[in-house]
Amino acid sequence: MALSSGLRQHLTRSGRHSDPWGRYYTSPDVSRSLIERIEVHKPTLVVELGSGSGSLCSAAADRWHDAQLVTVDVDHRASNRLDAKRAGPRVRHSHYVHDALDAALSEKIGLRLGTVDVAVCNPPYIRPRWRSDFGKILEDAGLSGVLTSIHDAGADLLFLAQNLRLLRRNGKLGLILPDGLIAAECYRGVRQALMRQHMVEQVVQLPRRVFKGTEAQTYLAVLSKMAGETHQVKLRQMGNDGSLSEIIEVPQDLAAKRLDYSFHARTGLQERRGTYQPISVGMAVKEIVRGTICSSAIAAFPAPIFHLGDFVAPAGEQAVRIVSKRFALGERAARIAVRDARLALPGDILLARVGRGLENRLALVVHGPCVISDCIFALRTTDEYRERLYRFFESEAGRHARATSAHGVAARFLSKTNLSEIQF
Ligand SMILES: C[S@@+](CC[C@H](N)C(=O)[O-])C[C@H]1O[C@@H](n2cnc3c(N)ncnc32)[C@H](O)[C@@H]1O
Questions:
Q1: Are residues 251 and 311 in the same domain?
Q2: 319-340 in b/e burial notation, b at 16+ Cβ within 10 A?
Q3: C-alpha 407 to ligand 1 mean position (Å)
Q4: Model-level pTM?
Q5: Do 112 and 215 fall into the same domain?
Q6: Which residue in 38, 180, 275, 366 has its CB near the most CB atoms, within 10 A?
Q7: β-strands 92-97, 68-73: how paired?
């Protein structure tokens, strides 16, 4: 299915940092695309938590004319009406101004738990202060034991869990999700638990920058509650013009690792090439050293520190970008600096760990040990792999690998685990 042109322009969102309710609004095109993906026959009860301007529920009303629609938003300015042109005259709609993360929500909005046919949701991008309600919501949804820390419970996960409580068995959940739940290592357990308990039907990677002013990577996901274990997930990618890629089917163990199309498309391509045995970055390095000096401490540190702005621009795949001599420490200076900082050593390959365009930042340490900031990884490799690894990161494939392994909503970053898993 192709979306109408100008997909990007249709999505607007308010500043993610400044907005306490994590509001950004889905365009009619993306809303329709999510609703179309939900395979269901004549649902009678459809719910949207965090309904905002009403784009998703209007698209739902457009498709399911006879359904009863219930929407909830904590913001009293959120729209309490459906788009009149799209919702047919038969649609019954009730809107509630309420906190969707209230553990007793169902009573407040007059619904019984486990009765909803379809839930659609584009949750806010915030990390609300932890409350005991959240423990109850996660527990009821079978997700309480899967987080390593309660600090990982963002609104996306909590809204997902609250929707699961409301849904009936075989009820459908259509979500718009940010990168974290889809690709971050800390949510591997969540992905695994969801796939063991429910049928995760498909995940569609949306084009980057569809949300104005951000590089946030977002996804459409559809799951069917307790409809059997997920053995294979269908992954697709949407282009800027709204066209959809072919489907990649990924088995559960790989899908638990990550659910983004671009990661699996790349891994599959490397396997198909078959000219040499690909190995992982983790296998080719002795250590991945992360710097410790944060940017605010750079100016006061007694030695020069290699930071994001010190990478030089690429000069072609054959050139080698060498760390400037001015960062090289003599023996004595290095002995002093190592007391307070992590050093990169000659032979180390430096990569950016965070930030816009991190996939373009690459350098080789040659002249002497140097102090690195906490935004930099130093890959300590062996003579056997140094050149192959460096050339890979300088190549188009290496850039793509880093770009697609990095995740994060407000700022993009590459974790040690994701970096180690890149095949080259
Ligand atoms: C990302 S916006 C999505 C809006 C709309 N669903 C859409 O897709 O255009 C998230 C919405 O959640 C609402 N929200 C944030 N925290 C909430 C809470 N605790 N309970 C209910 N709504 C909340 C915000 O006001 C906002 O309208």
A1: no
A2: eebebeeebbbeeebbeebeee
A3: 22
A4: 0.69
A5: yes
A6: 38
A7: parallel
Query: Residue whose CA is closest, atom 19 of ligand 1?
Result: 99
Decide if 147 is inside a domain: yes
Query: What SS3 state is found at 163?
Result: helix
Domain boundary among 271, 289, 311: 271
The verdict on 41 and 168 lying in the same domain is yes
* Domain endpoint, select from 253, 271, 289: 271
- pLDDT tens, position by position, 397-422: 888 889 888 887 667 889 999 999 99
Query: Does any ligand 1 atom lie closer than 6 A to the CB of residue 162?
Result: no
Query: Are residues 223 and 193 part of one domain?
Result: yes
- Tell me if 73 CB under 6 Å of ligand 1: yes
Q: How far is the CA of 100 from the centre of ligand 1 (A)?
A: 9
Query: CB of 80 closer than 6 A to ligand 1?
Result: no
Helix, strand, coil % (nearest 5) of the chain? 35, 25, 45
Does ligand 1 lie within 6 Å of residue 175's CB atom? no
**Residue 390 Cβ < 6 Å to ligand 1:** no
CATH number for the domain that contains residue 308: 3.90.220.20
Token output for 340: 């307070």
Atom of ligand 1 nearest to the CA of 78: 27
Condensed to tens digits (0 to 9), the pLDDT of residues 182-209 reads 988 889 999 999 999 999 999 999 987 6
Tokens 């969707």 map to which residue?
Answer: 100
139 lines ligand 1 (CB under 6 A): no
291 lines ligand 1 (CB under 6 A): no
- Neighbour count for residue 63 (Cβ, 10 Å): 17
Of all protein residues, whose CA lies closest to atom 9 belonging to ligand 1? 25
- Weakest mean pLDDT among 154-158, 212-216, 419-423: 212-216
Q: pLDDT tens digits, residue range 242-260?
A: 889 999 999 999 999 999 9
pLDDT, tens digit, for every residue of 34-75? Answer: 999 999 999 999 999 999 988 899 999 999 989 999 999 999
Domain coverage including residue 141: 8-271
